[in-house]
């Protein structure tokens, strides 16, 4: 497979690869034509190198997956790690999550994954956390009614903050654990790159699944 290296301003080269969408706004309202089917769409916001989403795309051929990442260097590393025949139901999207309302219509998405999101530990940066109420509001718009948010983190502060924000916006928590790897929920868990690192260090992993409020 074509091996990429980072060149400044080289976004067009990313697109040449065929597995990266660099103008996702052009797909708004008709993502099904990209995948050539009407299967549900699940997204990961802040996917890093995409190891998690490629694994679950291979396991679930009847779901379409989009891995959102704003750092093009990280996407390039992910592209260079893809299997020889990457799943046809998966693409990277080079975009900031802030722009998702330009990228999806109302009710276009069934599930959002947030895995090991940047914790932004300083209180003055709480609006940058991907579970801040402003982001939850964006997610409510693009998700179908009762759409799902699956969240994993090693960071206890971010986890408690996220639960507070869910409550504030009226989301319903369907499952929760503060030690995923020693819980009943570990069955079927696909590890992300960060998760592997944290588990090796013996850190506990928090997880919740929440359902979006009625609009
Ligand atoms: C700590 S890494 C976790 C990567 C991966 N989810 C994992 O668990 O291995 C967080 C990633 O989210 C990306 N990210 C953070 N904020 C973002 C935003 N607003 N839009 C898009 N990507 C974002 C970062 O560039 C980084 O690659």
Topology diagram in text:
Layout: H1 11-16, E1 20-21, H2 31-35, E2 41-45, H3 51-59, E3 64-69, H4 72-80, E4 90-94, H5 100-103, E5 109-115, H6 133-142, E6 143-153, H7 156-169, E7 172-177, H8 193-200, E8 206-211
Parallel strand pairs: 1-4, 2-3, 2-5, 3-4, 5-6
Antiparallel strand pairs: 6-8, 7-8
The site of S-adenosylmethionine has 19 residues, from strand 3 and helix 8.
- Main β sheet profile: 8 strands, mixed
CATH fold label: Rossmann fold
Computed CA radius of gyration, to the nearest angstrom: 17 Å
CATH class: Alpha Beta
- Write out the CATH superfamily name: Vaccinia Virus protein VP39
Shape designation: globular
By DSSP, the count of extended strands is 8
Number of domains: 1
Helix proportion range: 25-40%
Q: What bound compounds does this protein have?
A: S-adenosylmethionine
- What is the straight-line distance between the termini? 45 Å
Strand order of the biggest β-sheet: 1-4-3-2-5-6-8-7
The CATH architecture term is: 3-Layer(aba) Sandwich
């Amino acid at each position: 497979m074509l091996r990429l290296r980072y060149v400044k301003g080289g976004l067009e080269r990313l697109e040449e690869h065929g597995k990266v969408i660099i103008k996702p706004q052009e797909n708004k309202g008709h993502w099904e034509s990209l995948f050539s089917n009407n299967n549900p769409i699940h997204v990961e916001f802040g996917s890093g190198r995409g190891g998690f989403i490629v694994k679950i795309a291979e396991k679930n051929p009847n779901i379409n997956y989009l891995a959102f990442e704003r750092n093009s260097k990280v996407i390039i590393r992910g592209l260079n790690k893809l299997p020889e025949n990457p799943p046809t139901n998966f693409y990277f999207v080079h975009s900031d999550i802030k722009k998702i309302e330009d990228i999806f219509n109302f009710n276009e998405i069934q599930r959002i994954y947030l895995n090991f999101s940047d914790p932004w530990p300083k209180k003055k940066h709480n609006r940058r956390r991907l579970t801040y109420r402003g982001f939850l509001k964006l997610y409510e718009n693009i998700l179908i009614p009762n759409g799902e948010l699956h969240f994993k983190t090693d960071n206890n502060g971010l986890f408690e903050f996220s639960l507070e924000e869910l409550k504030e916006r009226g989301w319903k928590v369907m499952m929760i654990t503060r030690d995923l790897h020693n819980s009943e929920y570990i069955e079927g868990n696909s590890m992300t790159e960060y998760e592997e690192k944290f588990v090796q260090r013996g850190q506990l992993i928090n997880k919740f699944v929440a359902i979006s409020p009625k609009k």
